Amino acid sequence: MNIHFVGIDPETDEDGCPTVWVDTHAEDLLIQSYRADDATTATCDALSPARAPIPPGETVIRIPKRMIPIIRKACDELDPGVS
Known about the structure:
Blueprint: E1 3-8, E2 19-23, E3 28-32, E4 34-35, H1 38-47, E5 61-62, H2 68-78
Antiparallel strand pairs: 1-2, 2-3, 4-5
């Protein structure tokens, strides 16, 4: 596996640490963050274009706005031709 660390929430505390990694072999982002609460998950289910519930093995996560620069950096690492 070619997974490497990109960044961690700049406001990390001991209770949570949203983190981003890149898997350059699979060309995937790997994101650790907060699981959305049941009400948010139900709303996302209801708004799904496929009108299907979120399948087992998937979940809705919340990513703090302050993580956007780190996610952009990870995207740029996977697709360096995009500016």
